[in-house]
Design a protein that fits this description.
7-stranded mixed sheet, alpha/beta, 2 domains, 18 helices, FAD/NAD(P)-binding domain, 6-stranded parallel sheet
Length: 472
């Protein structure tokens, strides 16, 4: 069913033809790229910010945990870039379905790919495919209301989850552990869809264990994320003091890195914690790696091995094994990017080959093609890291304009949205997104919340149609 847009104007006319740039991916990297393009005065630009979803903000909407309202509020800042008259949000458009990279390159003067790294990495151990074993990407998509979330699979895994093991010691792993250890009252004010709140309230989670294969000096979580674990209403963080005894190499690492030093200080504060009756234990275990998921019809445990870490930071097994009870295992061991039709991909790194943001094809710069964000550098850094990254890429693009590699009119000259509609696509524009936004706020108000996320494709697009009908 076609989506009827209530916005058409891509921006005010100009006597100088603008450089038309398509940015593929409307998450932080894409929005920061659009912002960098519109804040410079040397080259007039018209930016189309494309996204597969009918909503902008990427991982700010569907990655940051909903119990982090201050961090999720960054979308208010990002929204200012969407309001710029030279930027047009074009959602509900998938490169590879509605058009491919070659079609896009023929329509605009330059393309910046910022579509991220959405694939999870596997543990590659026996039993990983058992029911009750989930990727963090699956769980996060579900509790943030991503329209592609596998609701049935996630909720089936949660229904029997008394003992939870989270594999990984990055911020996402801590997000997952924190959300699962929270009480229903703590989660009630968030913008989680109601079915998520209901399933989490019904889940019989009684313990959460977070595993890191190396020591605390090699953990990648931030201190802010770590400290929040100790602020839960009914959970107590437990750390084995033996895991905090560092070898000289780890001590040197801690001395050289302020984040590591602060993390260790926090962990040492917690080493004296004892578990009080009625509270949920949230254990942080280091020097421990999973070697097998135990179970027949579903996961019942995790066989783990004690590790040692050498001076270069490599972990190896000691042969000391034990089995931890686990009804739910969530792996959070990294992400990797995927390819798009006609776009090169380094399969090993999961990134698009590039040189300072310029796409490389067979080792040579591809004129008019750029990357920013995780698909450029890999899944590293925090949201703000993408700002510098996007600026570097835009600087390269502007250098190519100055050198004559790019010029306005290099593309075919047809309007991208018109081309998409002519090919049967139903793009969602900025006013359409505002209709979705208003519908979420209205839904939240019915339960005394600031917002409740619409989680189904049908309800997202229905909000657009209803707004368009009212406007007629």
């Amino acid at each position: 069913m076609p989506v009827v847009s209530v916005e058409e104007d891509p921006g005010p006319p100009s006597s100088v033809p603008p450089l038309r740039v398509a940015v593929v991916g409307a998450g932080p990297a894409g929005i920061y790229a659009a912002e960098a393009l519109t804040r410079q005065d040397d080259v007039p630009v018209a930016v189309d910010l494309l996204d597969r979803l009918p909503t902008p903000f990427g991982l700010v909407r569907h990655g940051i945990a909903p119990d982090h309202p201050k961090m999720r509020a960054i979308r208010d800042t990002l929204h200012r870039a969407l309001d710029h008259p030279s930027v047009r949000f074009v959602g509900n458009v998938e490169v590879g379905r509605d058009l491919d990279c070659a079609d896009l390159a023929r329509t605009v003067d330059a393309v910046v790919y910022t579509y991220g790294a959405a694939l999870d990495r596997h543990l590659a151990i026996p039993g990983e495919e058992l029911p009750g074993s989930l990727a963090a990407t699956d769980l996060v998509a579900w509790y943030t209301g991503h329209p592609d979330a596998d609701r049935a699979r996630v909720e089936a895994a949660l229904a029997g989850a008394r003992s939870v093991v989270v594999v990984g010691v990055g911020n996402v792993a801590l997000d997952v552990a924190r959300v699962l250890a929270r009480t229903p009252a703590e989660l009630e004010p968030t913008d989680m869809p109601q079915h998520v709140l209901d399933a989490l309230a019904a889940a019989p989670v009684g313990s959460v264990t977070v595993l890191g294969r190396r020591g605390p000096a090699h953990a990648t979580f931030t201190t802010q994320e770590l400290r929040e674990l100790d602020e839960l209403a009914q959970a107590t963080v437990l750390v084995d003091p033996a895991d905090l005894e560092l070898d000289p190499a780890a001590e040197e690492r801690a001395a050289a890195d302020r984040v590591v030093s602060r993390n260790l200080a926090v962990l040492r504060e917690w080493a004296g914690h004892t578990l009080e009756p009625g509270r949920t234990p949230l254990r942080l275990r280091f020097y421990t790696r999973p070697v097998r998921l135990v179970g027949e019809e579903r996961v019942t445990g995790v066989e783990v091995e004690r590790t040692v870490v050498d001076a270069e930071g490599r972990a190896s097994g000691t042969g000391e094994l034990e089995v931890l009870p686990a009804d739910l295992v969530v792996r959070s061991v990294g992400y990797r990017g995927s390819g798009l039709p006609h776009l090169p991909l380094d399969e090993r790194r999961g990134t698009v080959p590039n040189e300072g943001g310029r796409v490389l094809r067979d080792g040579q710069r591809a004129p008019g093609e750029y990357v920013a964000g995780w698909i450029k550098r890999g899944p590293t850094g925090v949201v703000g890291t993408n700002k510098h990254d996007a600026r570097e890429t835009v600087a390269a693009l502007l250098e190519d304009v100055a050198a004559g590699v790019l010029r306005p009119g290099r593309g075919g000259g047809d309007d991208l949205v018109s081309e998409l509609r002519a090919n049967g696509a139903d793009p969602v524009l900025l006013e359409d997104w505002r209709a979705i936004d208003a519908a979420e706020v209205a839904l939240g108000a019915t339960r005394g919340r600031a917002r409740t996320t619409l989680h189904e494709w049908e309800s997202l697009l229905a909000a657009v149609k209803e707004a368009a009908a009212r406007a007629r």
